[in-house]
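Incident log, structure service

09:12 report received: a user says their structure output differs between two submissions of the same chain.
09:20 pulled the input from the user's history:
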Amino acid sequence: MNLNVPALAIPQHSPGSPNVLIWVIAALAFAGVILRPFRLPEWIWAVSGALLLVATGALSPGDAATGAGKGLDVYLFLTGMMLLAEVAREEGLFDWLAALATLWAKGSAGRLFLLIYIVGAVVTVFLSNDATAVVLTPAVAAAVKSAKVKQPLPYLLICAFIANAASFVLPISNPANLVIYGNHMPPLMTWLARYLAASVVSIAVTYWTLRWTQRGALGETLERDVAAPRLSATSKMAGLAIVMTAVVLLVASAMNVQLGLPTAVAGIATTAIVFILARKNPWIVVKDISWGVIPLVAGLFILVDALDKTGVIKMIGILLGDAARQSASLTATSAGAIIAFASNLMNNLPAGLIAASAVQQAHVPDQVTSAILIGVDLGPNLSITGSLATILWLTALRREGLSVSFGAFLKIGLLVMPPALLLSLATVYLSRG
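09:34 re-ran on a clean worker, output below:
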């Protein structure tokens, strides 16, 4: 494809310029988040990169604060979701759900796999992919323990893969959706017309390919007689709060209201009410939440804001706009695939922020925007650190004493993600006719 980009559109800098320093620091920080050298938490690398930008003078403290401030809605959203999940876990809601799923499975590993996948899809659609990682993972861990599963990993993998595969059914299914469209979010019915068919394809293809990769572990017979624990009044309240939060988020999305504040209010209110009624110390919940995800997101926002100041995002926007004018269909397919794989090199949150800025500057056709959104949402199913949801899933696994290596996840992702991505992009293209 011949791209006629004006020569002055690409900024020229000497090797010692501040821009080069920003690019190097950002690249090292993204690599740290993905590779986790010395097994240090992901947030340490993102925050270290942001602090290094300020310490070297490549970014002023004021600009760093402005960049971090852009993530306020995401911080509030995550805080509310993590509080809701931890309260529900503490009050035994997950133990009850686990026993129920095990009873419905009736000793069939395949049936339990399907039940967990369906629940994961529902949670993702109505509560977001991050909620699936935070809320569903402990429930699945409890379910496989109740069923005395010999190999629990196949069922826990569902939480990671469905969190991304079902994340573009609704605007609220993934905070990245709101980032991509910014203040130009399509009405709900327009959204469904554009993405529903592709979402069904994504969910179905991901299910069958994931199940195929795990077929060797799904032949065992599971425990049938599992005693369901009593559902207490506070656990019922926690469950009701999660359902009400889903309703609030749908309404907020329809009214084009940011989701962070209502989610945070729901989480804080639920925690306060439940622990007042149960006469427990809220510190029980607060101390067990993985708060490191907040500085991780803040660090990523600062790094992306610094990259924007170098002009690289403007350059991407010019390239994207020029390519779209030549062939919207080819550009859509190429951009969707490129951003899908790029999300695994730097995490889909910064990739989505960069893509959103480029899309909004280039004023590309809806077809291109749709392909980029699918790439940002579905692409992270390739690797273990492709999305914030998967990082949250990893954190939840570690709390259960389990772990998955980068290589082990990548082997599965290479089989699961590409067919789902290509068929979803094809569905979006065909649905335009």
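09:41 both user submissions now match this output. Likely a transient worker issue. Closing.
09:42 reviewer note: Residues 1-16 have pLDDT under 50 and may be disordered. The chain has one domain: 18-431.
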